[in-house]
Amino acid sequence: MATTTHHRVTNQTPPLSGYNAFRLNPLLLQIASGSNAETLKDFDQIGRYSLSGEAQELAEMANRNAPRLKAHDRFGRRVDQVEFHPSYHALMRRSVSYGIGSSVWEDAARGNTNGHLKRAIRFFMLAGLDTGHLSSLSSTNGAVAALMTAPHLAKEWVPRVTTRKYDSAHKSPVDKSCLTIGMAVAEKQAGTDFTALTTRAETVGNGLFRLTGHKWFLSSPMADAFLMLARTPNGTSCFLVPRFLADDEHNHINLVGLKDKLGNRSAATAEAEINGSIAQMIGRDGEGSRAIHEMQTLMRLDGALISSSIMHASLCEAVHHARHRKVGGRLLMDQPLMRAVLTDIALDVAASTALSMRLARAFDGARANDVEGTFAHVMTPVVKYLTAKIAPAAIAEAMEAMGGNGYIESSVLPRHYREAPHQSLLEGSGNMMALEVCRVFKRTPELFNVVLSDIESNLGDKAKDTSKVLRAAYELALDDESAARILVEQLAIAAAAAELYRLETGVLADAYADTRLGSNWRASYGMLGTRFDNQTILDALYPPVA
Ligand SMILES: Cc1cc2nc3c(=O)[nH]c(=O)nc-3n(C[C@H](O)[C@H](O)[C@H](O)COP(=O)(O)OP(=O)(O)OC[C@H]3O[C@@H](n4cnc5c(N)ncnc54)[C@H](O)[C@@H]3O)c2cc1C
């Protein structure tokens, strides 16, 4: 109901807007504490932007005005374009300028060894604003890893990917200031199973191929190129397929529809026919899954960051609400059961955040340090698994804490809630993550001990019991794949607890470890009991805003 002079609105929460998302997140501040002044300035700028009223309005508009397919122009010629609302382009412009698709590779070229962690912190803050527009930047960042395995293509493409000047024009890549790259794997009959893909690739000479078939899910349909899987006589191979060829000639990636999907509304996911598109092979003939895996690995880290970020953003709103809303004459925050619920969620959000950032740190260290390399290799699916699995329940509970207001679109929580299951499905769904971990251990059993030692080294007096549980879960899962999720969940929780201890989070780490480690099965939030001072934990993680 609109406000009139006769109807003064009381007991409603002021908007959580105009603050700094970086400064409001003590855990993130701690994770970023080793950064230099220039990087901290960068984080501050993005922190202010992502909680500004202007950015929040852009995100809302981009999600209220979903992209539309424009298959033909007014003369009936195929154009295969998706039209986005200007707010989407504004979000893209900003995130490109913050280097979300490029900074890892800029840092690597400069010899900086913390590029993944720096980007992860920026990505985390921007994901709380809108996840949709980040999709094509996430795939672009990942695609560079795959391109690096094909030096001749990398030389041509990477310099045009690693710029910070967003260019949404529909034209040949050579004429653009900045490129984005999408992924095109899934088909109608197969998404998980790469061996069942049917899109065909025929050689046409000069190192070029012609691809014919279809793709059933194409996020970032307006990307300048796609890494696409297609079959050659030697098996499934990976190709770089530009959307336009030289002289702006259309490369016959024909869009036949946009998905009416559950998740964010700002990004489009298309169905496409591939009608003789010209492509170049990446990696070896018949080994396409290897090249795509390079891309997916980085996108899985982004998935973990998105899950953690949207949980955090939702809980920020819920905690803010509880500090302002009175029920029965008492602030919700002062009601013991509400505080226990919020604190219990906060432990999962902190663990997810710490674990995702731990993974980013492992990516940074992987080249120079074997333990970090093993952690990145083994734990990417583990981290993605846990963060994605807990996000829907955590966001739903945060939404409930806000009562009816949380359920309303403009509260943003419904947007985060819709997005949460998406992250579990993409780049390998839950079961695939669990099975992949078992496959890695079966192939190289010694990796389990490397990861276990790393976890144990930070767990202190909890190491012995945790180690026992993890070893039992390992034996079980390797013997019977139906137990794979048990191993992956326990590994993720143990690694998260270890990281919270490494970050010296004190009572927070104790509370997480005591309530989560060793298969303490709980189906809902609010089970913290009275052992921990939840007010202290919550205030430390979510300091009250002025
Ligand atoms: C919004 C959205 C955007 C997307 N964007 C893209 C994109 O840009 N590019 C792209 O290529 N794809 C994209 N996808 C597709 C996505 O990657 C696939 O949907 C996903 O890989 C699963 O494939 P599928 O749908 O064929 O399911 P299936 O392969 O049929 O699998 C169904 C379920 O069975 C499980 N399963 C499979 N094998 C086993 C097993 N052995 N044991 C136990 N469980 C098993 C899987 O984990 C999954 O949960 C997108 C999907 C969505 C929803």
Entry summary:
By secondary structure, the protein is of the alpha+beta class.
Describe what you observe in this structure.
With 546 residues, this protein is an alpha+beta fold. It is built from 18 helices and eleven strands. It folds into two domains: 68-84 and 135-285, Butyryl-CoA Dehydrogenase, subunit A, domain 2, CATH 2.40.110.20; 290-541, Butyryl-CoA Dehydrogenase, subunit A, domain 3 (Up-down Bundle). It has helices at 26-31, 37-50, 53-64, 86-97, 103-109, 115-127, 134-147, 151-161, 288-324, 336-365, 370-401, 413-425, 430-443, 446-459, 463-479, 484-502, 507-516, 534-541; strands spanning 68-72, 78-83, 181-184, 200-205, 208-219, 225-232, 235-242, 253-258, 269-282, 326-327, 330-331. Strands 3, 4, 5, 6, 7, 8 and 9 form a seven-stranded mixed sheet that branches. β4 (200-205) and β5 form a beta hairpin. The protein binds flavin-adenine dinucleotide.
Shape: globular
Q: Could you tell me the number of beta strands?
A: 11
Class inferred from helices and paired strands:
alpha+beta
Fourth-level CATH superfamily of the largest domain: Butyryl-CoA Dehydrogenase, subunit A, domain 3
Bound molecules: flavin-adenine dinucleotide
Strand percentage, roughly? Answer: 5-15%
Integer average pLDDT? 96
Count up the domains: 2
Q: Please report the first level of CATH classification, the CATH class of the largest domain.
A: Mainly Alpha
The major beta sheet can be summarized as: 7 strands, mixed
Tally of individual helices: 18
Please identify, by name, the CATH architecture of the largest domain. Answer: Up-down Bundle
Order of helices and strands: HHHEEHHHHHEEEEEEEHEEHHHHHHHHH
Radius of gyration: 23 Å
* Terminal-residue CA separation: 28 Å
> Which fold name fills CATH's third level, the topology of the largest domain?
Butyryl-CoA Dehydrogenase, subunit A, domain 3
Estimated helix fraction: 40-55%
Low-confidence stretches: none
